[in-house]
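tool_call: predict_structure(chain=1)
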Amino acid sequence: MQSTSKYICATILIAAIVAIANANSSRTCYSCSGADCGRTTKSVTVQCFDSLDYCVTIFDKFNVVQKGCSINLPIELRQRCDANTAECHKCNTDRCNNLGQANFMCLECDSEKNADCANNPTAIAATRCSAPTAPNSYCYVKSANNVVSRGCATNIADQESCLKDANCMLCLAGDITNCNSVNIGDMSAAQRTLALNSKFLFNLQGKK
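tool_result:
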């Protein structure tokens, strides 16, 4: 009887140690669902229960619909990850699920630091943008005071600021590869107007 009690106690102790070890080694992921994923002032993290679990971001095209630990995903969303689609970003380090959809890539540069940004943008490799909080995912190119800058416009404030600036243009990353590689500094007013009406999109309520 005494040996049985010792065995039970030992089993409980081992289980407790394993649980603590799992808790200490498990991932910490950004977490949100639905509209909360679009709130820039709300950044929530969760610790995954299983040490083998990983962080995920789920997209509807380019729009973030859920972040968290994979084990907590609804079945219909987890299927996107199981199928390795572009609408699921999986990663295995703490708080790593902060990137946008795999095809949300823009040139990111500043001509003060890299002359190619203004004169030879096609020589610069596009980089993956961070997860957007706006409904649409845009790249931008801006010219101001003889300085050209290019990058990702991931929140509504940045997108609206660009819309109000005659020397800033937005484009949808999913439509054209390296869409913000246009040389706006060399454009005339007429050419810029043509670019605005064709290659670039200025309606934030447009294609999603």
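agent: The chain has two domains: 25-98, 105-198. Proceeding to next step.
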